[in-house]
């Protein structure tokens, strides 16, 4: 299910953003499902556990979630494997949400 929405290269206009947001929410759920992963994300982002809901209202919060996952290759590969998606889809989703339209090489 997620793998179709996560490949935002083929999704036109707003659909690409919707797919990117869906993948970022999936990544946040992935982090939240494991105490250690969530604690590491909160520590790295500087977000206090009690203020995550407020932080999530910030426009770039989902970009930060994807930045965090993309910046940790083992974490990225685990997210991709658990959700049966291409790890490159995470990078493309991050770029879509950040407004970064340049192409990148993805390992």
What's a quick, concise take on this entry?
With 107 residues, the chain is mostly helical. The protein has helices at residues 2-6, 14-32, 35-45, 52-56, 61-70, 73-83, 87-98.
Descriptive report:
The chain has one domain. The radius of gyration is 13 Å and the shape is globular. It contains seven helices and no strands. The protein has 107 residues and is mostly helical.
Order of helices and strands: HHHHHHH
Q: How many separate domains?
A: 1
| DSSP helical segment count | 7
Total E-strand runs = 0
**3D shape:** globular
* Sequence stretches where pLDDT stays below 50 over 5 or more residues: 3-11
Largest β sheet strand count, sense and barrel closure: none
Output the radius of gyration. Answer: 13 Å
Question: What features would you highlight for this structure?
Answer:
single chain; disordered N terminus; mainly alpha; 107 residues; globular; 7 helices
């Amino acid at each position: 299910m997620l793998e179709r929405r996560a490949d935002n290269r083929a999704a036109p206009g707003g659909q690409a953003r919707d797919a990117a947001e869906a993948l970022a929410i999936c990544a946040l759920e992935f982090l939240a499902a494991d105490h250690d992963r969530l604690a590491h994300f909160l520590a790295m982002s500087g977000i206090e556990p009690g203020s995550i809901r407020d932080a999530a209202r910030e426009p770039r919060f989902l970009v930060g979630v994807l930045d965090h996952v993309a910046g940790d290759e083992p974490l990225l590969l685990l997210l991709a494997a658990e959700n049966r998606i291409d790890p490159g889809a995470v990078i493309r989703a991050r770029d879509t949400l950040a407004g970064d339209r340049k192409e990148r090489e993805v390992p």
